[in-house]
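Forgive a beginner's question, but would it be possible to get a protein, spelled out as residues, together with the matching structure tokens, please?
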Amino acid sequence: MKKVTAFLLTLVSASASAQTTLMLYTSQPNQDAQQTVAAFEKQNPEIRVNWIRDGTTKLMARFQTEREAGVKSPDLLLIADSVTMESLKGEGLLYPYISQYKSDYDLALYDAKGYYYGTKMITTGIAYNTQASFKPDSWWDLTKPNLRNLTAMPSPLYSGAALIHLATLTENNNIGWDYYQQLKDNQVQAQGGNGGVLNALSSGTKAYGALVDYLAIREKAKGAPIEFVFPKEGVSMVTEPVAILADSKEKQAAQKFVDFLLSNQGQELVKSQGYLPASNIVGTPAGFPPRSEIKMMAFNPESALQNANNNKDRFAKIFN
């Protein structure tokens, strides 16, 4: 009996030592990260994924500190936006990988050389309290006199999604910087992140707000007095891209993680979590219109990266 037990323990030990371990840095909410990793590990039992969750800015600060100290980097990043990925790509820190699933995605959602891939589309549109008498359908509606001092929006000085929204709208020939000046003139409140806007709408302290889609749609499903509109001019988006680090020692396992996120199974998980999947062949979650009815505005992550500091400064001058 002792020999059998010892043999079994040896097998377990050998199996554990043979398991590949990946380190993931992610800005996903904790529950989403847990679900994502669990689903991947179930499909790939030979790979274990350890993960650290924080906001993208804090994760990048940690990553930089660890690099300077010579500490081992993560194998994978799954963070909020493509602008940060462009910065890392420019520093030569990302590894190019051409996934077999890239044909299921619009070209705008991934790097042409495979340095990163968008995994979902989190758009910013207009949310409003259902008690409001006016029903907006255009970004310009937020500048109308009858909405004066009734609107909140996240600040691009605080929120990465809001900074991308700013870059998207100001580079649009039909909107531009004049739009933001008119928002200021109409006493739109720009402060904090999307959570603060949601709270203002739910409580009724503000009637209208620029807000990421899933927060409004999720809260509406829970009974909150909120409606969400995809404006006729289109919406901006962040894509929560995934990337492999150039100095990863487990690139083959990391590639499997990327492929899982981009596969139908990975995208169905995104849908079940209440987000708009990035894949063209997976449908939209409950509460969202068909993908064909959502107009995405053009966005250039390279330009947004180059102009990020100038955009922040210009915004601060308008709103301070």
In short: Residues 114 and 276 are 21 Å apart (CA to CA). The chain has two domains: 2-119+240-286, 121-237+298-319. The longest helix spans residues 301-319. The chain has eleven helices and 13 strands.
